[in-house]
């Protein structure tokens, strides 16, 4: 979790209006032509940047849909990679890979939300917004995300194949909380944002309870809200805010840098992703600090089966390493593969709308067609069918939203 595992992220800056010469009665002089040329260049860069980010968001949205189709349709979704208690065991490679490829989704949404916040703040300052007005927007938007989690989203989970707690703190809760807290940092320079993200990255791991304490601290609501997952049948937290805030802050820094030189930053980001993956291999191989709990087995599945709730350092390094490299790859092929990537942007421009709609769609598919679950191959067919059904709705809503930029629907 614009959403989510949503638009789950703040609106990005709008393309600038077309700049004309001061007078239509005479040709533009050399200086005016240079201004117009720079405007055209800037607009082209911004449009390219938006296209790449929207395509990447669309890609992780499709993977999110796979994860939730696995839950509602196949009913083979794991119980969760928690810091304590029973850990998921997979009987075959396809079951594990189906889960593994969806792990980058929540980190990707958190990161992209931070990027979107930075771009939104930059564009609104150019329009004359004060920092106070920008922060107010983020607080309202974050509150909306939390409210949606506690109402519409939790109702969708109640329609699923498993009993769910009355109050569930899911991804939109973490995104909303991260947006509210992250708004404090909109004026901080990228250097200090990166330092703070690194501090959170280490501090959350160092202060986290040990696996043997699972269940002993579930009566601490502030801990469940901010620090660790767990709870009861009435109140359950999977996404404590601080564990995901580090990725929002990282996205803020990335967004600030991308406004300076998007091509270079996307390329540097891909190298950073490779470094993250190397860090994952080192920490996972050591099987100590950074893993929260030991590997469940010594095979390749055990090596890649990492703690997500809350995200261990190894989980963050693995997923964000993949995300940053994918983002760099999309930036590299955006010019030549624009037609192929364009359908991704249809989903990527309306993430919160997609998030809310797809939960109910796949829940309905599961209830009607596979009430006792399905095989994984059959689930993949239903997953693709669901995407095909949502595509025209997302296309329509994206166009509608652009025609009504000042509507309350901007929060969706």
Description of the molecule:
The chain is mostly helical. The protein has 14 helices and 3 strands. It has helices spanning 30-74, 93-100, 105-126, 131-158, 171-182, 190-206, 221-226, 241-258, 262-286, 300-304, 313-333, 338-348, 351-369, 376-403; strands at 167-169, 230-231, 235-237. Helix 1 (30-74) crosses helix 11, helix 1 packs parallel to helix 13 (351-369) and helix 9 (262-286) packs antiparallel against helix 11.
Order of helical and strand elements: HHHHEHHHEEHHHHHHH
Please give the largest β-sheet: 3 strands, mixed
Rg over alpha carbons:
22 Å
Largest sheet: spatial strand order: 1-3-2
Strand content: under 5%
Q: Roughly what percent helix?
A: 55-70%
Decide which structural class fits the backbone.
Answer: mainly alpha
Mean pLDDT: 89
Number of discrete helical segments: 14
Through-space gap between termini: 12 Å
Low-confidence stretches: 1-28, 30-36
Gross morphology: globular
Got a strand count?
A: 3
Short recap of the structure:
This protein is an all-alpha fold and 412 residues long.
Features:
three-stranded mixed sheet, 412 residues, single chain
Q: What's the SSE blueprint?
A:
Blueprint: H1 30-74, H2 93-100, H3 105-126, H4 131-158, E1 167-169, H5 171-182, H6 190-206, H7 221-226, E2 230-231, E3 235-237, H8 241-258, H9 262-286, H10 300-304, H11 313-333, H12 338-348, H13 351-369, H14 376-403
Parallel strand pairs: 1-3
Antiparallel strand pairs: 2-3
Helix pairs in contact: 1-3, 1-11, 1-12, 1-13, 1-14, 3-5, 3-8, 4-5, 4-13, 5-8, 6-8, 9-11, 13-14
